[in-house]
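Ligand-bound model needed. zinc ion.
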Amino acid sequence: MITCPNCKSKDLGKIGTTQYYCWNCFIELSIEQNIISVHQVEEDGSLSSLNDLFEEDQRRMG
Ligand SMILES: [Zn+2]
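Prediction:
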């Protein structure tokens, strides 16, 4: 079960094989080797990384 590292919500929608979208705080999560990468979707559709806001422990699954 994946939990949003930002808001701790479990209300995540799957948008790709390893990609999820948090419906609570509107960020995109992608999972690689059990580490969650966090991105914000900008108005123009591009992604900016929010990984710097989290410790690696917070982004680790399980
Ligand atoms: Zn969230």
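Residues 4, 6-7, 9, 22, 24-25, 27 surround zinc ion (CB under 6 Å).
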